[in-house]
TrEMBL record:
NCBIfam families: T6A_YjeE (TIGR00150). Its main location: cytoplasm. InterPro entries: P-loop_NTPase, T6A_TsaE. One of its GO terms (molecular function) is ATP binding. It is found in: Cytoplasm. Belongs to the TsaE family. Keywords: ATP-binding, Cytoplasm, Magnesium, Metal-binding, Nucleotide-binding, tRNA processing. It comes from Melghirimyces profundicolus. GO terms for biological process: tRNA threonylcarbamoyladenosine modification. PANTHER family: TRNA THREONYLCARBAMOYLADENOSINE BIOSYNTHESIS PROTEIN TSAE. This is tRNA threonylcarbamoyladenosine biosynthesis protein TsaE.
């Protein structure tokens, strides 16, 4: 199921593979310098989503949460993926070279991005993953930057095989 509005698109997935598949189809739409603010409660499916995104970028190495390392870099795909988990960050202004990632050559995905809101660039893709209680159903809401809804959401609900890197 997909719900589209002028500035957002919302999807419903029913299992981890559907969540990965949605992210895999999003990946070809991403460009160098895109920053994704990924939000969701513990267990909502953020890492599952990130695994699909990495696969869609052509990254073959295993992807897991960088909770204790803060940042993991994945190379070898169409674009590098900089995967951040800032849940354990003590203060949002800690200098970790944010700009090198946010304005670098790859796609940056930040889990728990609200914890470093002042450090985030103005243009970013906000994605919220929420899990329905007592089921595996996930609601995934994507809010692209102003003027980028068609690039990010346009046709994403079709999930055609020709849109997927590696299919």
């Amino acid at each position: 199921m997909i719900l589209m509005s002028r500035n957002t698109c919302t999807f419903e997935t029913h299992n981890p593979e559907e969540t990965r598949n949605l992210a895999r189809h999003l990946a070809p739409r991403l460009r160098r310098g895109d920053v994704i603010a990924l939000e969701g409660d513990l267990g909502a499916g953020k890492t599952t989503f990130t695994q699909g995104l990495a696969a869609g970028l052509g990254i073959e190495e295993p992807v897991d949460s960088p909770t204790f390392t803060l940042i993991k870099e994945y190379e070898g795909g169409r674009l590098p993926l900089y995967h951040m988990d800032v849940y354990r960050l003590n203060h949002p202004t800690e200098e970790l070279g944010w700009d090198e990632y946010f304005y670098g050559d790859g796609v940056t995905l930040v889990e728990w991005a609200d914890r470093i809101e002042p450090m985030l660039p103005g243009e970013l893709i906000r994605i919220e993953v929420s899990r329905h209680q007592e089921s595996d159903v996930r609601k995934i809401r994507i809010e692209p930057p102003a003027g980028e809804t068609e690039r990010i959401c346009g046709g994403l609900g079709r999930l055609d095989n020709h849109e997927t890197a590696g299919d």
